[in-house]
């Protein structure tokens, strides 16, 4: 079959998304900055944890808890960019990407739509993340009261307060990019796997339409050695390709599983932190000006867009695999000899296993997970609104 290997990352059609979520964090200067701010945040988290235990007051906890909860996600995001970003490159190099050429119109349309959609998403998400980082870098007086790293710097190193506070706050631009980069790595790599599945699906479609559906005498094909040998070569080619994609996908999933679980937990903690931020602000009678609204809106927009992209990526990957299974199941196996029938059935059994991004035995990244999280967030918001109404 006529498929040419792509020179990744040179010929990468998703280069904008790759630049923001992978390449940026491979630069030596950026790596050094990531390590610096990772150390900063770990030290501040340890100090604040100690202070929470020694100053056991509910008002004190309420003020600093929002930023404290958010620190877990920040630390995990920075650590992941150092420890696990190369997992995606390893998987794409191992799978040996094909060039997007010589395909049928339907699959070409799917691939072009995905590339265009994700390019627009990458630009939008990157701009929102940068904007959120800038807003956090220039906090209002109200926000400063709740940012425990600034309070620690002011209380323990007052002579260096301006310098260290400036150094810490400027890191929010990098932190904002890192916080969305980890999820966008899942979006990026999953999209490349889907594109490769579309290519394999296109090859499978050619096998069905050209070799069988256009044949005038299907019964004679069983006795035609030339046809059976040709069909065997092409079937094995497609099966090997799909098996390679599934194998590398499972390896990547296994390597990333622990990070996906941790991000799910820390993401829930971050969500609690955002809700606490609004609740505490209202409790302390903060005036919500333009800066505070932009502060909350930028976080929400970056988080929601990234969350939606991850959920859709996982779901679409499942859908493409289901399309491959249905297409293979529609293969007219009755024209195959005994040897080819065994090959066909073996691969059909393999395709019964869904291609999913799992982080537990029962939970995968798909619409069901998105609906469950949305339901829980709605429940939390309901409780939050009730608390606000009671306070009034």
TrEMBL record:
The keyword Zinc does not apply. The chain crosses the membrane at residues 34-56, 68-89, 118-138, 166-188, 258-282, 297-317. Signal peptide: none annotated. Keywords: Membrane, Transmembrane, Transmembrane helix. Coiled coil: none annotated. It comes from the Eukaryota. This is Odorant receptor. The lineage of its organism: Eukaryota, Metazoa, Ecdysozoa, Arthropoda, Hexapoda.
């Amino acid at each position: 079959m006529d498929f040419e290997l792509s020179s990744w990352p040179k010929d990468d059609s998703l280069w904008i998304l790759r630049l923001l979520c992978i390449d940026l964090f491979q630069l030596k200067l950026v790596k050094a900055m990531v390590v610096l701010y990772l150390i900063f945040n770990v030290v501040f988290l340890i100090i604040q944890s100690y202070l929470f235990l020694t100053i056991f007051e509910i008002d004190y906890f309420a003020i600093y808890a929002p930023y404290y909860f958010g620190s877990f996600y920040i630390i995990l995001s920075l650590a992941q960019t150092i420890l696990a970003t190369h997992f995606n490159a390893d998987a794409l190099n191992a799978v040996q990407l094909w060039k997007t050429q010589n395909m049928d119109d339907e699959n070409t349309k799917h691939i072009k739509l995905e590339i265009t959609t994700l390019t627009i998403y990458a630009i939008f998400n990157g701009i929102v993340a940068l904007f959120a980082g800038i807003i956090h870098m220039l906090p209002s007086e109200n926000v400063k009261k709740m940012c425990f790293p600034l309070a620690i710097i002011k209380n323990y190193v007052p002579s260096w307060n301006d310098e260290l506070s400036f150094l810490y706050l400027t890191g929010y631009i990098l932190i904002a990019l890192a916080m969305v980069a980890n999820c966008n790595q899942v979006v990026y790599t999953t999209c490349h796997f889907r594109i490769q599945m579309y290519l394999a699906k296109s090859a499978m479609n050619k096998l069905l339409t050209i070799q069988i559906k256009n044949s005038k005498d299907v019964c004679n094909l069983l006795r035609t050695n030339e046809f059976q040998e040709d069909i065997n070569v092409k079937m094995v080619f497609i099966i090997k390709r799909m098996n390679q994609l599934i194998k590398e996908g499972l390896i990547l999933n296994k390597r990333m599983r622990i990070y996906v679980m941790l991000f799910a937990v820390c993401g829930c903690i971050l969500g609690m932190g955002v809700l606490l931020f609004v609740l505490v602000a209202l409790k302390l009678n903060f005036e919500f000006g333009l800066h505070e609204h932009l502060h909350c809106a930028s976080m929400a927009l970056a988080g929601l867009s990234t969350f939606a992209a991850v959920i859709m990526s996982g779901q679409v990957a499942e859908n493409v695999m289901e399309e491959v299974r249905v297409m293979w199941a529609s293969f007219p196996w009755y024209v195959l000899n005994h040897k080819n029938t065994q090959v066909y059935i073996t691969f059909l059994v393999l395709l019964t296993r869904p291609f999913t991004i799992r982080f537990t035995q029962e939970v995968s990244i798909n619409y069901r997970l998105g609906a469950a999280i949305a339901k829980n967030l709605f429940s939390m918001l309901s409780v939050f609104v009730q608390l606000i109404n009671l306070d009034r």
